[in-house]
Structure formats: C-alpha cells, structure tokens
Amino acid sequence: MSQISQIRRCYNCGAVLQSSDPTKEGYINKEVLENGSQNFLFCNKCFEMERFQPKTNEPVVSDDILTIVKDAKKKDALLVYVINLFSFEASFSHKINELISGMNILVVANKYDLMPKGTNEEETREYVAHRFRAEGVHVEKDNIALANAFDDDTAHTIIAQIYELKNGKDVYIIGSKLAGKTTLIDSFIRVYKNLSQSNIVSEIYPGTGSRVLQLPMSSKTTLYEIPDIPYNNSVLYGLDAANTKKVYVTKPVEYTDITIREDEVLYFGGMAFIELVEGKRTQLRCYFSEAMQFKRHSNKKCEENFVKAISKKAVKPYCSKIKSVKDLDVFEIKVTESNYRDIGIQGLGWFNFLAKGQTFRIYVPMGVSIYNSRPKIDRK
C-alpha cells in the first residue's frame, strides 16, 4: 500500500524543508520541523532574515503630503527642508525623496546648539549633505544653513537665503515633527515684511484635506508650510511625558565612552540595547541625553532580561510599550569598513566606534528606525 505525505516548504523562499544538511537550501532544525504544527515554517536562513531585518523602518507619509510635494515640484518651487540635526538620519521617506530629487533645496539644520562643544560647522554641513546624498537627494553644501534656536537674527539670515534662492518662485517648507519647522515659521512671521496686498491665511490645500499656512512672499509668490512628516519611527513616538523629558536632548550633548566584549550587551536605559555578536572588545563613544543610564550585561537571554528590567523599572529612562520580546525589533549590522562609524537610533542618539569587522545586533522598540553612517562628529 502506498503512503502519501506532504512535502513542507519554506513559507518565504519556497525551498523544500530538510534537516539533514545545513549547507543546502531549505535547512531547518530537526526538532522545529518535526514538532512544527503551524502551517507557516521558515528555513533557518529565512528565519534569520525575517527576525534580523535587513531594512530599517521609515515614517509613514500621507497622500496629502505627497500631493503637496508634487505641486511644489511642478511649480519648480524652492523647497526648504528643516531637520533636527541631533537625530534626523532615519527621518526620511523614500517616497518624498524620489519626488524632491533634482529640486532647488535649502536645508535648515536646526538644533546645531545641541551638538558637542567645538563641533566644526563646515564638517557638519558636509555631513548633512552626505546624508542627503545617501538618500538620493543632492544638496549643495552651501545650501545648508545651521540654526540654533530661531531667534530674530537667525530668522533674518534664513529669510535672506530663501529670497536669494527662490528665483521668483513659490517656497514650500517641509520637515519632520519636532524638527522645528513650526518654530521657524513663527520666527518668519515676527520679522518678515509683507510687501504684497495679500494676507497670511490658513486654508485647505487644493486636492487634500490638510490645512496649510500660506505667507505671501511678494505679489506673485507664496510660502507654504507642508504638514509635518510623521515621527512614528522615532523612540519619542508614543512615549509618556516623564520619559520623553529624559530622552529628549535640550542642551549640548556630552559623550560617554563604554567598552563592551563579545559576550556582553549594553543597555541604553530601558529604551534599546546593543549586542556585540562577533568581534574584539570595542569602545563605544555614546552620544545620548545626560539622563541616559548605561548598563552592561551578559548576552545570555538578553531579550528576556531586558524586558524584565523594564517591568521592574530597574533601568531609566524606559519605554513602557515594551512588555515582551515581541515588542522589540532586531537589526543586525555587519561592519566591513576599517574606519570610524556611527550607529544611531532615531530620536534617541548614536554611538561611534572604530570598525574592525564587528557584527552588532540592535534591539529597539517595534517600529523604531536605526541607521549606520560615517561619523557625525569627527574623532581627531
């Protein structure tokens, strides 16, 4: 009598699942295959790819924002892009970047005053230009304005740059929530002179349901404030007020040097942690809020122990949304360079290290973005 049995395949890649040869496709641990009653099984390779995501998260942008940006491009308008210099690297949307590529852009790098004392202005402009280039958006270094709090002098300077660059066209201001875009607009209103016959108005933008502030720049041109790009991929999103106050940087950041080994993890409070999976002892130069508590631990059961520490409030500041290991996204970064690099967590801060072929895993609240970049602060 013949017996028919169903061959099980990897839900992701479709390879026939087998537990005899780890070097061949479709390999899965024998106990998982034999005891796996669920319909959806992953081979070991695909499981790792799904668990340690190769791509980071990005903000979810509404159709209204995209419609307004499309109009700005059609008009050949000047786009003023406001960023929070302390934490902007993972704030981009690829949909917006595709639209604004090739546009006339002025970047206002706000909160330069939060950078460590002695930070070089020209190097900072080059870094910002590099990050935009990495996102597929070319910005001239001379078109990057560094700004502190938007006092009247800063507002006057940026308005002068806008008039110089706009070439008789409209102006659209865009930026992420908490970047300082609204504060910049308020400064404009305080110091600019309305030489037209039109009034400042706030109206529903055509083809959208979003209300947009409109400032007349001349009798023929207008400045439009595009709605905020969401910050739903930041650790600050949905954080309670007490921990937000501890995480949010409000004065010049000072670094802390901490060394970790291959069998250790480093907690960034109860917000995130990093594991040195492979590599020699590595010194991390950490740029975070002064309220951040750094703690080193063994990498054994690192996720479970991190969640327990949060539940007991043994780490501060902490993300109360993390109640189980399922509330953590995990990213793996294999470093191939042999120079200094940054790894950052959107809205939280970053650490700098000398790359020597290490492999890191970064554990963050679900939905939060990370990034890997050349150094923001040059170590000389």
How is the topology of this model organized?
Layout: H1 30-35, H2 44-51, H3 63-74, E1 78-84, H4 94-100, E2 104-110, H5 121-134, E3 144-146, H6 152-165, E4 171-175, H7 181-191, E5 201-204, E6 211-216, E7 222-225, H8 241-247, E8 255-260, E9 264-268, E10 272-278, E11 282-288, E12 294-298, H9 302-311, E13 328-334, E14 340-345, E15 349-354, E16 359-365, E17 370-373
Parallel strand pairs: 1-2, 1-4, 2-3, 4-7
Antiparallel strand pairs: 5-6, 6-7, 8-11, 9-10, 9-12, 10-16, 11-15, 13-16, 14-15, 14-17
Helix pairs in contact: 3-4, 6-7
Explain the overall architecture.
This protein has 380 residues and is of the alpha+beta class. It folds into three domains: 1-51, no CATH class; 63-225, Rossmann fold, CATH 3.40.50.300; 241-373, no CATH class. Helix content is 23%, strand content 25%. The protein has helices at 30-35, 44-51, 63-74, 94-100, 121-134, 152-165, 181-191, 241-247, 302-311, and strands at 78-84, 104-110, 144-146, 171-175, 201-204, 211-216, 222-225, 255-260, 264-268, 272-278, 282-288, 294-298, 328-334, 340-345, 349-354, 359-365, 370-373. Helix 5 links the parallel strand 2 and strand 3. The longest helix is centred in the middle third of the chain and has 14 residues, at 121-134. It is globular, with a radius of gyration of 24 Å.
